[in-house]
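Lay summary. Proteins are chains of building blocks that fold into shapes, and those shapes determine what they do. In this project we predict the shape from the chain. Here is one chain we studied, written as its sequence of building blocks.
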Amino acid sequence: MKRLAYAALALVGCGVAGVAAAPWAIGGALAERGVTVARIGWCAEGLCLTDIVYDGARAAGAVARWDRVVRVVDVSVPLATVMARLGRPDPGASVSEGGAGLPAIVAPLVAAVDVEHLVVEGAPVPALSGRVWPTRRLRGEGPLVGEGVEIDGDTVRATMTTEVGAVEIVATPGGGGVRVDAWCRACRLPAPSAADAPLVLPDVHAEGAWAGGAFTGTVRVGAVAAGVVARRDADDAGGPTGTARVTLSDTALADVYALFGPTVPEAARARIGGTIRAEVDVAWRGGALDVEPLLDRFAVAGFTVDGLVPPGLAGGPFTFRARDAAGDETLVVSGEGTANWLSLAALGPWLTAAVLAAEDASFREHGGYDLAGMREAAAKNAEEGELVRGGSTLTQQLAKNLFLDGTRSYARKLRELLYAVEMERELGKPRILELYLNVVEFGPGLRGARAGARTYFLKEPAGLLPEEAAWLASILRFPRTAWRAQYLADRPDDRRVDWILENLRGVPEAERVAALGRPVRLVPPP
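And here is the predicted shape, written in a compact code that computers can read:
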């Protein structure tokens, strides 16, 4: 970085030309150039100055020695001053508007300028010490092992430990500001709502320019590159704060999934096609990150998946893992020929319509995922400050039931999505709906619509009244909670039932209207 310690040099350089003059004359010469000094006087080493201030920078003291070496001690320079000087075409060209060039004054009289303890306020760097004139070589004196900063001419190299991993930065003047290259090695994103475990990324490389208080450039993670505009706002008790807009142009979905590594194990064995465009807003305070996808600016094209769904789901018996009545994991056998299995036609019109109204009104139109539903879920989660809605389609819910556990995380959503896209292509809508209604949980140990209808109403699904079908659909999100709070307490949620009845489509209108407001009669529990 060009003359990072230039302010320290300016603190004393302007007065060196008058080293043979009286101290009061030297003080006047410095003042003319914007340098104030609390005390100037001769000492055994040469000319000694204390409490020096120049352009926002301060130094505890300086000595212009008889051997033409100037030593400056305990210098503090605001980051804003450094950045402002780096933004000038040649920070060393002048001391003030219309002033004499500093190099022209100093060069004949000063052999070198050494600095002990230069600190840039507002920058996460340790104290710097070393020679700034004429070679500008300084090294950091950070208290943490492995951290430090090195300035070599116009280049600054820094390493530091952050909340997300070890960060390396190389900065040089350029583009009216500072040209930056930064790497984060094995970055970890500890976001509990985003993954079951911290997400470890491949090396992250950012390159661009810092000018006018903002960074504009590109961030590369693995094979994925995104444009970034980031602004550091301020420092407070919680650390640095700032915001960024990340823009992802048309990028292969396979490359995006590869970033998640073991968090999404299916990506390693699936064949994933298609591209994605997206924008994301990021805010940070200290080491905490807040990531908000702008789902209205997401676009997915040609999304295909192959290699995950087992062929047995198309027909015949299959097995999957589920929780039993006690909550323990067990192996369940379902499919044609098993005791509780019913064909789609045998499930009856009311239950099918009610489930679609309650869980996925756009089921027949989407390809396994619903960006509008995801957008609504993201807005609700942001409002609540936690993951309360997932925005999953019925196909994604089926994927969760058949292949995944109940962990509520965005990582699981990414896994669901792969299965859902492939099931839509391999199985088709009727088979997906048939599978869902035969494996979904309706209460503790109650798997499938036949078990639910028999337990709560002593009926087969095809014989359910509209309000009975609507109640069964209403408990699908939290079936075990509904078992306790509605079934055992004999307090069915009639408002939720009526909402579902109002949104039923493709059923006889007169029967639907007649069911509105009619109380749900549950069979008493044993």
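What the prediction tells us: Residues 1-20, 88-101 have pLDDT under 50 and may be disordered.
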